């Protein structure tokens, strides 16, 4: 079968598209033949050796796959041949067949698009966990979303809207801001005068919850723009700069800085993760949320897609199609 293989840590363009052996399930494992494979910002960090984890080389990157089960291990009980699922794994998804523990699979309704299902995993999963468990976002609160046109940012915009918050989106261009508004933000602003715009839009109060996958100078502005009892969610550092936080701000402004590590959450709280996935799946099926799949690219183009994501040249969710 064809797969994208990381043979050495380094530039994204070094990824190889090559033949590897088909996987054979053992125990409670299943093999999924993907209809769609999700592409995520951390995938690019992983292959460059810049992520928290470093898999043994060589390895196949990719965390999300949605499609049909084509093989099952002898101990598999929840799923059978022909079942349609979406799966979350540590790596291995950028392939024509994907080996996964059946416990990491969620049943996928026939009417739900596979690309949409992939969007629900890492991007929407991160935003949902951040806003529900880490921020306990309440109806009527003001939610600020940085990087609001990216896959995770758009997820936060939609989920925040679904949870009854007033959503202020932040994005770098007019097109991206228009997209965020079309996806549920009340208003969208740029980064040029972020602190001043937040002050103006909140009548000086600041934001109750800030969702920050960007870091850098934007984090610095937001850290000075939080409301009393606010929650500043640290999601990631797409800007490439990990900011330094003046802890006196948390003291005098009375807010919390809250880390969101969705991958660790899925391993440490699998039951809660499963509940979250069921809720997201129900929201998507009913139309309460509508993940924006902006592009479907051939599996062979994975390196190009990842490079564009890291250059912040994309919007919404991009999926690979074998």
Automatic annotation (TrEMBL):
<dbReference type="InterPro" id="IPR051397">
    <property type="entry name" value="Zn-ADH-like_protein"/>
</dbReference>
<dbReference type="Pfam" id="PF00107">
    <property type="entry name" value="ADH_zinc_N"/>
</dbReference>
<dbReference type="InterPro" id="IPR020843">
    <property type="entry name" value="ER"/>
</dbReference>
<dbReference type="InterPro" id="IPR013154">
    <property type="entry name" value="ADH-like_N"/>
</dbReference>
<dbReference type="InterPro" id="IPR013149">
    <property type="entry name" value="ADH-like_C"/>
</dbReference>
<dbReference type="InterPro" id="IPR011032">
    <property type="entry name" value="GroES-like_sf"/>
</dbReference>
<dbReference type="GO" id="GO:0016491">
    <property type="term" value="F:oxidoreductase activity"/>
</dbReference>
<feature type="domain" description="Enoyl reductase (ER)">
    <location>
        <begin position="10"/>
        <end position="320"/>
    </location>
</feature>
<dbReference type="InterPro" id="IPR036291">
    <property type="entry name" value="NAD(P)-bd_dom_sf"/>
</dbReference>
<dbReference type="Pfam" id="PF08240">
    <property type="entry name" value="ADH_N"/>
</dbReference>
<protein>
    <submittedName>
        <fullName>NADPH:quinone oxidoreductase family protein</fullName>
    </submittedName>
</protein>
């Amino acid at each position: 079968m064809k797969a994208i293989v990381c043979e050495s840590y380094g530039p994204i363009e070094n990824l190889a598209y090559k033949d590897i052996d088909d996987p054979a399930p053992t125990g409670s494992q299943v093999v999924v033949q993907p209809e769609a494979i999700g592409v995520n910002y951390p995938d690019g960090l992983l292959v460059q050796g810049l992520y928290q984890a470093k898999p043994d080389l060589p390895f196949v990157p990719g965390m999300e796959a949605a499609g049909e089960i084509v093989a099952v291990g002898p101990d598999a009980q929840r799923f059978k041949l022909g079942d349609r699922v979406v799966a979350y794994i540590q790596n291995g998804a950028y392939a024509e067949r994907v080996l996964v523990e059946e416990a990491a699979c969620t049943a996928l309704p026939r009417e739900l698009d596979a690309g949409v299902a992939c969007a629900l995993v890492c991007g929407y999963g991160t935003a949902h966990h951040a806003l529900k468990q880490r921020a306990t976002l309440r109806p009527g609160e003001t939610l600020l979303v940085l990087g609001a046109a990216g896959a995770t940012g758009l997820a936060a915009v939609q989920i925040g809207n679904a949870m009854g918050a007033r959503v202020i989106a932040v994005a770098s261009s007019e097109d991206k801001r228009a997209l965020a508004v079309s996806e549920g933000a009340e208003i969208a602003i740029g980064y040029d005068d972020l602190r001043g715009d937040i002050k103006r839009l909140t009548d000086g109060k600041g934001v109750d919850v800030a969702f920050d996958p960007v870091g850098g100078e934007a984090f610095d502005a937001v850290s000075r723009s939080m409301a009393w009892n606010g929650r500043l969610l640290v999601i990631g550092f797409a800007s490439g700069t990990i900011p330094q936080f003046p802890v006196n701000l948390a003291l005098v402004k009375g807010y919390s800085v809250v880390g969101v590590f969705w991958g660790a959450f899925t391993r440490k709280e699998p039951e809660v993760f499963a509940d979250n996935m069921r809720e997201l799946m129900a929201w998507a099926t009913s139309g309460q949320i509508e993940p924006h799949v902006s592009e479907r690219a051939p599996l062979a183009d994975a390196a190009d897609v990842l490079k564009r994501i890291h250059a912040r040249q994309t919007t919404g969710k991009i999926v690979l199609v074998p």
